[in-house]
């Protein structure tokens, strides 16, 4: 009857595999002077398009500017090969390998999720290729799991928490409640906030904590549970859809009446804009008041971005832009694309960003890019920041001694 | 006291949404026996459509409720469309195959929604007239939530009337109880199914549209709800509306009060609850014993070992693959390594599904346990690679032995959901146990030993180990053990009566499948250099299931072909376009329609027909 079925199917698979092996070998041609400098870029474009698309536009602008100014190393163009990581670390590692072997990229950059960033960082160290992590916030990527080849641009969880602690310590509030998504980002944000605030204000106590599953906040019960503890102030780490739910339900149930809320990242346009006129009033936040910053470097960036994409930049746009400006500067400083030389160039590299001068610390490869700290309010049906100031990242890092202790060497 | 009352009410509001969505799922499942993964997608579509319409008409109460109703009906129509255009063509396929079709729909809807409504979260208008809150014992409580609380029982009542007081409802109940008898008595099943899909999807759409005033509509809503809806359905007892209602209430209250006692439990609470319920009650709270386990594989023609020259096909393939490193580059090699590993994963799942008739929704747990078993040994004990690799199947096998003991005492979807519950428990422990497993930041630096560090060397190692394991699995299928398993699958009663301990064999096959998946996980860990809880999360279980179904469950080569096909398609689509989910989903739909018995099944049929002609 059907005794031969076992043959055909594997045969078909082998055939398919053979086709596929034969196909993708494009970029294997000889690389010599005058060839473009290729950077492999990986991010969660399908998983988190709302954040990664502005980011992509940011780096596109940077690359165009670099090339319009004559490229790098005497006329070599900067070329980016961009890939989606589907939001999964194992996919990201495969994609990184593809970029390295097939596309012959000289550097890696990008990633959004912390675990994806860590996986690529480890891959970069293993393969001795420089990696500029753009968006991941986890402290581990530059500290406990830091390595020679990995650099990170965005201010880390610790830095952003420290910026907020400075403001929180000025409040009269003594009883604090925390609400944070139930994963490493939420955990370490709350941990640092508690530790740093308790150091500055030994009289505060933390009366309750809520840990909703990321993306599945049960808004009603969570809000009620926070209110029941009668805190003077709340530290919030939820973001995105959870944040919108939390704000709506909290307003509906009077949670924010006579309470100060200190909230991580909420001032970024990515999170503030979707809430429109329901953006919370008077929260102390870190963020990016893009329409109000009038330093020359930011104005130039914002205008160029507006002109190119016909929409205002977001936090991700700045990150994407600065990441690729940093890569360009590093290659130029190294005078070659040799990975070791680029890594050496990135260590201590100083450059100008839309937020002002920043540097990648030689100590831990963390950039000193900061964030804007201010209060939220609603103006013309849109959430905006007021009374903000720029908190330079360099001022919100632990002592060199403490950092050295954390980094494996 | 007032606090507890309000917390109780909040739990009721949560339960209302959950009930609306899961009632639709349970109706669809009860009648059609389709495991409808796309149910969450309909919920999401309901929310998006609701958002669009509420933005347009929602300034008056009439407009708002009209918008909600229209959104629900529109989603119902989409559901009916899916039945007519897709599922109807698959009723003669093995029953699980429709699951693959609905998975294709999930992928397509994800990208379609992102294309139509954009990627940003959409915060809709609040319900006019219900914006404020009322004070209940001095605690403010949103008016809208009160309406939702009332809506749950109202819908339950209406559904009860529909099913008990109308002819159509009677027919649906008849079909739920005995599909074949109903159609023998002249009930057109196709029309009935279309109607049921319409109703079920409309309920999902209603649940989604009603969320517009409560939360920002976003692209992750489908996945967030569908698993929980399945939990409700199974806890309540499949096909039981009242059961779904009771289960929603219980889960709503558990979530409301659980976070007061133990705030960190949010990740795992519903799954723990489901595991406990299923261990105590085999058919959920109000389910009835099924005469036929719904998700068991339909047997099809028996497996027959290849004879003659064909016997050497696997060896030939192995030899061919072993020669690949001579021509292929690094990247092709690591993708091939992954294909070989995933083939082992899919084949191990096929041992359960194809031979045992046991559909597991939680197979990723053992893949992940293997990966973590290896990685933890490397991290904590600095174990050398061979030792760590040897530990992978052991750890996973032990895990499977423990979970399997409970799981094999259930059948059909109850079995499937119990495996899912255990997988989620393992996942959440891994996710939160920072000190030991590294939590969601995973374990880094799990690289192969120097002698296996080269891409070719590691590929050969994988080929040897995974190939060996695959041969062993094949051997098991044709050994008395495999025949016994198949006997248990085809007729547990007869098998028992000739003295076979079916449960014991299923239990052992669960452990064997688990340890094979564990070996795959260990190999995967070293090929990636790092492990994360994502390896044991739901998407991996679903992927494994999709691979098995894509290849077809009636042949042993099916899962291998399916794994190769699925992984190559996914990686290729991913590196070429941002719309890869749309591409992949469409390909799956086309494959499902073109090869209703899976790719390998199709090839085999072709072969058989050619020989018989």
Automatic annotation (TrEMBL), chain A:
UniProt keyword list: Amino-acid transport, Signal, Transport
Transmembrane stretches, start-end: none
Signal peptide residues on this chain, from the entry's feature table: 1-30
Protein origin, superkingdom: Bacteria
InterPro entries referenced in this protein's UniProt entry, alphabetically: BCAA_transport, Leu-bd, Peripla_BP_I, TAT_signal
Family: Belongs to the leucine-binding protein family.
Protein name, as recorded: ABC transporter substrate-binding protein
Organism from which the protein derives: Azospirillum brasilense
Taxon lineage: Bacteria, Pseudomonadati, Pseudomonadota, Alphaproteobacteria, Rhodospirillales
